[in-house]
Amino acid sequence: MFLKNYWYVAAIDNEVSRKPMRRTIMNEPVVLYRTEDGTPVALEDRCAHRHLPLSMGKLKGDILECLYHGLCFDKTGACVKVPGQDTIPPSARVRAYPVVERYRWVWIWMGEPALADPAKITDFHWLSDPGWGAATRYLHAKANWQLIVDNLLDLTHLAFVHTTTIGNAALVNAKVKVDRTPSDVTVTRWTIDAPAPPTFVKAGGFTTNVDRWQIINFRPPSFVRLDVGATPTGTGAPEGRRVGGIGMRNLNAMTPETETTTHYFYGQAHDFDVKNAQTTEMIMNQITTAFLEDQAIFEAQQANMLQMPNAPQIDINADNGVIQARRILDRLFQDEQGGRRTVAAE
């Protein structure tokens, strides 16, 4: 299931250069590159002549030349030169995708180009806001994108999967609230008067118990933004006084590659010691360690699901946020297939 009339992350900004790069998105091969002025471009990755990937070619100025027979294409996807002849067939063109560079990511629109309004790009400003220290990385996951969304919406797994970094046993007993609107789901978790997990001890220097929050927001089609942090117990964090502790944003964008593989872009931003690159690197390394543990989980899930496609599964209380998000996605997919516009697509 792919929702196409949405912006997705195609690449981290520094992945896209003057060297053409191939990336498959929603089963469609795309070539990404930059023009001489630095503008990112995304074209269908095939020559209109004999289907060789254009990503195997080379840039001459702002023109992409096919390696096979030298046909040349501009940033709109139009063929502008056919070696050995003056006439260019009118059908000699490939699809050009709308792209926008924002929040240190390059975004792509895979659906109807006329609907590609940059104002609809989901807010990830923490990645580029100078008031935050931040970093972003990429994982290729051999799993369906929805399994990754599920993983992020149900954080009870931290108590079992991430005990060396961001999890501990106290998280199982968190107070949880789930709120759903037509266009998003928010899961709010509070763990009161409990030991800080290892990553929080390293980042915040906690020596006593903490009050910890995890506020998880899902927005279609595949974005999960987490407001997480902790303060010493009893200092008023549940009432909104986040003083004397640490605050972070964990930022996730899942872009389907195929039905069973995903481009997973993630970032981590922190509102303390923001100018210290070593702090940013330490936190990012801790998160990456945790996410590699997650990757092993959802890739094993996907492998099992492929081997046993009809095996039943049960739901538990912790799945409430997951269930609500899936319901939104199912409705949006049905609406898109029927050509209807929905609240979440606005």
Task: Walk me through the structure.
The chain is of the alpha+beta class and 346 residues long. It folds into two domains: 7-119, Rieske Iron-sulfur Protein, CATH 2.102.10; 122-345, Naphthalene 1,2-dioxygenase Alpha Subunit, Chain A, domain 1 (Alpha-Beta Complex), CATH 3.90.380. Helices cover 20% and strands 32% of the residues. It contains five helices and 17 strands. A hairpin with a 2-residue loop joins strand 5 (58-60) and strand 6 (63-65). It starts with 6 loop residues before the first strand and ends in a 9-residue tail after the last helix. Residues 342-346 have low confidence and may be disordered.
What are the key terms here?
5 helices; four-stranded antiparallel sheet; alpha+beta; 17 strands; Naphthalene 1,2-dioxygenase Alpha Subunit, Chain A, domain 1; 20% helix; Rieske Iron-sulfur Protein; 346 residues
Output the radius of gyration: 22 Å
Number of E-type strands? 17
Class by alpha and beta content: alpha+beta
In terms of DSSP E residues, the strand content is 25-35%
Helix content: 10-25%
Quick one: CATH superfamily of the largest domain? Naphthalene 1,2-dioxygenase Alpha Subunit, Chain A, domain 1
Q: Which CATH architecture of the largest domain?
A: Alpha-Beta Complex
Give the C-level CATH assignment of the largest domain: Alpha Beta
Question: How is the main sheet built?
Answer: 7 strands, antiparallel
Number of domains: 2
Mean pLDDT rating = 95
Order of helices and strands: EEEEEEEEEEEHHEEHEEEEHH
Number of helical runs? 5
CATH topology of the largest domain: Naphthalene 1,2-dioxygenase Alpha Subunit, Chain A, domain 1
Taking pLDDT < 50 over at least 5 consecutive residues as the criterion, the unreliable ranges are 342-346
What is the first-to-last residue Cα distance?
A: 20 Å
Spatial strand sequence of the major β-sheet: 11-17-16-15-14-13-12
Apparent shape: elongated
